[in-house]
Amino acid sequence: MSSKRKVAILGATGAVGQRFIQLLQGHPWFCVEVLAASERSAGKKYKDACNWTMESNLPPEIGEMTVTDTNVEAVEKAGNVDLVFSALPGDLAGPVETEFAKAYPVFSKASAHRMDKDVPLIIPEVNPDHLALIPVQRKLRDWKGFISTDPNCSTIQLVISLKPLMGFGLSQVVVSTMQALSGAGYPGVPSLDIIDNVIPYISKEEEKLEAEALKLLGSFNGKEVRNASFKLSASCNRVNVKDGHLESVFVKLDSNPSVEEVEEAFRRFQGEPQRLKLPSAPEHPIVVKKEQNRPQPRYDRDEGKGMSIVVGRIRKDPIMTVKYMCLGHNTIRGAAGAGLLSAELAVAKGLA
Ligand code: NAP
Questions:
Q1: Number of domains in the chain
Q2: 158/110 same-domain check
């Protein structure tokens, strides 16, 4: 990479925006050029606009940057940008990302465009070939830039774990999630609603999981993605954990592999980011824990710097074929880290 690409982060003050800033520190290919947020934050120094909740200190030079409004004109006035990361709320992201994509590559964490037919929904280890939708989209919309999206956080970790099971013939999946508080953004769920409690509902989460997984594991025929044909049922819960979604997964397969064969398929799983040695790629996309009481969010969410997913308690199921627990760091593998890895893959393929 000759010189670093300059990036704008939209939604820079939020839970995902902060994680982008943290992960971009010292990144070999990208550097932060512009920070944008709502009109509440625009015009303020970043350190005054945001309540920094990352584990590492706010980098002083980032704290001194002035936050801009979230529109193309304001961002262009603030700096020379090569690509855009969007961590905007889903209901706002649609038209804003469209405006930016006319001129810039936009890598989005928001749900607005995920299911658009000409927009890639990417997990770099799972469906890197779907990035070929970018030239299709550019031609159709006559854009210089494009929109590429990452899935919902709870979808990413589930689908990474399902991909190696495709070889056994995936027929049905049932998943029950226990999702961390940071998944609801900042400040998120009121403390009095979640202390001493579990909330058995997350708005639109089950629908996203059920739809996105089929697109991700679908096949691309050069023009469009044909959804995968297995059935998926999701039940989503918010729990009193800061970071790290834990999922209880039940899978019906066409064949009947042993627990050891399933474990081996998880362990051996590698994707294009590992082959290309992309900067944010974890060495092991899936880490298998053998202890009976793992994975646990507090102890296991930082595996592979938060980019590995962790599975455990793999066992036979009397109704389905196998069941296991699956953990992922929702703001790293499920959000900012996913966005970075997708952008790295697009750059490596000469698309951005
Ligand atoms: P968040 O903490 O609520 O942050 C929202 C960001 O958007 C803030 O920077 C906020 O700026 C900005 N914003 C709000 N209203 C705006 C407006 N009218 N104009 C411009 N900017 C505005 O949310 P988050 O958790 O970071 O989530 C961001 C996106 O990522 C969402 O689409 C979410 O669904 C998705 N996502 C989140 C996670 C996760 O684990 N949190 C995982 C996957 C995907 P101000 O500070 O100025 O209000």
A1: 2
A2: no
**Do both 27 and 175 map to the same domain?**
no
The pLDDT tens digits for 82-132 are 999 999 999 999 999 999 999 999 999 999 999 999 999 999 999 999 999
Ligand 1 neighbourhood includes 304 CB (under 6 angstroms): no
Q: Whose CA is nearest to atom 22 of ligand 1?
A: 38
pLDDT in tens, 2-12: 689 999 999 99
Find the catalytic residue in 50, 113, 130, 245: 245
Whether this model's pTM surpasses 0.70:
yes
pLDDT tens for each residue of 184-236: 999 999 999 999 999 999 999 999 999 999 999 999 999 999 999 999 999 99
Tell me the CA–centroid distance for residue 339 and ligand 1, in Å: 14
Q: For ligand 1, say whether the CB of 92 is within 6 Å of any of its atoms.
A: yes
CA torsion through residues 37, 41, 46, 50, sign: negative
| CA angle centred on 209, ends 203 and 211, rounded to 5° | 110
* Residue 337 backbone phi and psi in degrees, to 5: -65, -35
| Whole-number percent of the chain with pLDDT over 90 | 99
User: pLDDT tens across 235-244, in order?
Assistant: 999 999 999 9
Question: Given 50, 113, 153, 284, which residue is catalytic?
Answer: 153
- Asked if 133 and 174 count as a contact pair (C-beta separation under 8 A), the reply is no
* Mean pLDDT of the chain, nearest integer: 97
**C-beta of 202 in contact with ligand 1 (< 6 A):** no
Task: Quote the domain boundaries for residue 189.
Answer: 153-329
**Pair (100, 170) in one structural domain:** no
Residues 261 and 174 in one domain: yes
DSSP per-residue string spanning 284-323: -SEEEE-STT---HHHHTTGGGGTSEEEEEEEE-SSSSEE
153 among known catalytic residues? yes
Q: Does residue 335 contact residue 16 with C-beta atoms inside 8 Å? A: yes
Q: What pLDDT does residue 82 have?
A: 98
CATH number at residue 241: 3.30.360.10
Unique residue bearing structure tokens 């592979």: 304
Looking at the structure, tell me whether residues 306 and 199 fall in a common domain: yes
Residues 266 and 308 in one domain: yes
Q: Are residues 50 and 184 in the same domain?
A: no
Q: Clarify whether residues 203 and 230 are in a common domain.
A: yes
Q: Which of 10, 16, 54, 153, when mutated, tests ligand 1's pocket best, judged by the most ligand atoms within 8 Å of its CB?
A: 16
